[in-house]
């Protein structure tokens, strides 16, 4: 493609005349906003090590009481987007949240969608619209847009979880805001589907009545399915998707969630795709290659990869490795922007 004229090629007087009228010439910026053949991502390939985050998070617990933090979170910020912008990718926000014994993070609801993936600790819970969801290691808990949620902790040890939100996109759209509320009474309504057991109340249940019929995805169920799949399909990569059990669609509207099992000594090569991705180790250890960058990942480490990167996930250990994945595919598919390419 032709090299286009630069800003410096125009007389300063002309530029000043334009700017004074809130006008800019397109051609000096055309190749930046429409680069040839693939985007130029700000998202950098990056790893956050849990053993570096954890002491700093525990220190945050000493430095800032929960009442002064509301949510005690260290944000996993990608320097490619500017740390202050608190983005892992252009769509995905990641945070590590700490709740100490007997602490309570008050009820609120906001427009961005969130999920929690429990990293460490027992006996914390998130109450979502009156439904108390227990938080055990590896569980995925949804707190979708507009639903009231608060976090509590009945145990004795600190609990840490990974927050994944679509905050960067919702904020960019000038659609991000929060409403504070009071402690939610926990509802013990029998008239709710029990999807983990495959059961719904027969006479009162209207399918697809709610956008989010399932709020907690227990890790033990997900792990067992991965193990069973690995036995059944001895060749193919083993991956499961977190879906809305009534529609079979992605469990949230903007970010997609899945889990992958790497068998001992298995390598999975992902096809480059238009959506950025996040990887978090639930159990085991793996090596990740993102284009030319190489990282070792241990339990609770988190990585992000930009769009169209070539990603290899390698398990060199003799134990299976379980990886939680977040990606931007749902929003890109809805907008007609999603594509997958062959590896080169
Ligand atoms: O737990 O509700 O990491 O509102 C960022 C914003 C967590 C939460 C975050 C939030 C929350």
From TrEMBL:
The protein, known as: Gentisate 1,2-dioxygenase
A GO MF label: dioxygenase activity
Coiled coil stretches, renumbered: none
Database matches in CDD domains: cupin_GDO-like_N (cd02216)
Cupin type-2 domain location: 101-164
Database matches in InterPro entries: Cupin_2, GDO-like, RmlC-like_jellyroll, RmlC_Cupin_sf
Pfam families: Cupin_2
UniProt KW keywords: Dioxygenase, Oxidoreductase
Native source organism of the sequence: Acinetobacter albensis
Highest taxon, organism lineage: Bacteria
